Amino acid sequence: MRAALGAAAASVLALSLATVWVGDAAYQQWMPNAEDKALREATLLNEAIRPREDRPAAPTDPDAPPWEAWLDRLIEGGYQQSAYALVLEDGSWAVHDRIDPGKVDYLPPLTTRIAGNADLVRIHLPDGVGYDIGMPVGPNPTDRTVTFLRRTEPNRGQDLNALTGRTDLADQWVTTYIMVNPVEAKAARAEVRSILGWYVVPYGSLFVALVAWAVTGLALRPVEAIRRRMERIGAGAFHERVPVPAARDEIAGLAVTTNRTLDRLERSLIEQRRLVTDAAHELRTPVAVLRSTLEVALAHPERADWREVVERSLADTARLHRLTDDLLLLSRGEERPRQAGTVDWGDLLGEQLAERAFGGERRIRVLELRPVTVPGTEQLLGRVVDNLLDNACRHAAERVTVSLRASDGWAVLTVADDGPGIPAADRERVFERFVRLDEARSRTDGGTGLGLSLVRGIAEGLGGSAEAVEPSAGAGAELVVRLPLDTSEPAPAQSDDHRYTATPPPAATSR
């Protein structure tokens, strides 16, 4: 409806302007004909002043005005009785017809004396002066500003005396003013505007509105199909997709983008349901163990070792706390975290290694440790390092190696262990939630199955990546995390003073 009304309004405006323009064009086309007719009659006026030898020089009636014979000659020559005036050199009117003389000085004689010279002049008639146009096509015009065709010819004094009835006129130039009749041109303009205004403008605008209605309806038909399908999808049919029109236009692009968005939403929904299911499954075991421990102790309080009960309950509670923390961090890791600042990842890794050395972990060896600054927060980056070291220490036989370096605009953290390793077919699957590959990676070994999933989620949220690669040592497992280097500040100089090779981390200090 809006498109049709807009098209109708635009067409009314355009056709109305065209009506005015075409009417004026018709007027301009007719006016040269009127000018040619005025020039023809001005020539007849000047020729009729000179009587021929085969005509009587004066009318037969001695009481008739002298110009009646002259008028008869005009009519015989084809004159059509237009409004005219003949002006002598002194500014007086020799003769006129269908125009009131009034103030005679508003039609001055032509100063440039060139025989047969003619031009057009626009003259505003003074008050008290009226005019009439012979043989009108329509109503007599009432314009106060009119167009005269002006023409000059030399004439003999005797011809002028015979015309005017005077006896004192000498040979002189006579200026002829004949009104250019605009009646036919105005009638043509009015007729054209009437036809266009009463028929073309309304019916043409209606036609344009109907075409706009039909074309817009056809263009919006795919949108309506998309809307109906979205209603079905919103009602629960998340596997369905909106139809893509065959035309390669904006609506087809909208449908393709909508389907891509629905794909991502469906994957997110599946992941959410899977997370809830896996989380409920993982929480059942520690909750069941904790409940059975407490129920047995309460059923036989006299035989329960309450210290052991509390210690076991505390251990299960700590595991539940760690699991809920991982789930919360994992859910937040679905979105790209807001980068509030940057972190010196090398310094953070050094602190983590020192704490583990202070806690008695002596299997970790640092191959390379360079100061690198990456975007993120200490909480997120610390969790990445902690999860990687926990995973490596949990499965290492004798040694865990760590390196942190900068390469081609990336900070690269590598953590490897000499444990049973990760089969090539499972190197992508280990980053899924609650995945344990074998008995060594079981719940009794302390893992929740969320550590590596958190590592990848945090890395990708910070614009990086995490992957399991072929171990460079030929055995064990090797995990690599890449994060973009922060370019807002110049990177610290990389010197060999910061490189550690096959040595334990420095002794821990109190934090």
UniProtKB/TrEMBL annotation:
Top-rank lineage group of the source organism: Bacteria
Full protein name? histidine kinase
**What sequence ranges are listed for the domain HAMP?**
217-270
Its Enzyme Commission number(s) read 2.7.13.3
Q: Which UniProt keywords apply?
A: Kinase, Membrane, Phosphoprotein, Signal, Transferase, Transmembrane, Transmembrane helix, Two-component regulatory system
The protein's matches in Gene3D superfamilies, at most eight in alphabetical order, are given as: 1.10.287.130, 6.10.340.10, Histidine kinase-like ATPase, C-terminal domain
Question: Which CDD domains does the entry link to?
Answer: HAMP, HATPase, HisKA
Secretion signal span: 1-25
Task: Quickly give the catalysed reaction.
Answer: ATP + protein L-histidine = ADP + protein N-phospho-L-histidine
Q: What is its main location?
A: membrane
- Tagged with keyword Oxidoreductase: no
Any idea where this protein resides?
Cell membrane
Name a Pfam family for this protein. Answer: HisKA
Organism annotation: Kitasatospora saccharophila
Q: Which residues cross the membrane?
A: 196-220
Does the keyword Transit peptide belong to this entry?
no
Query: Annotated region Disordered: where?
Result: 483-511
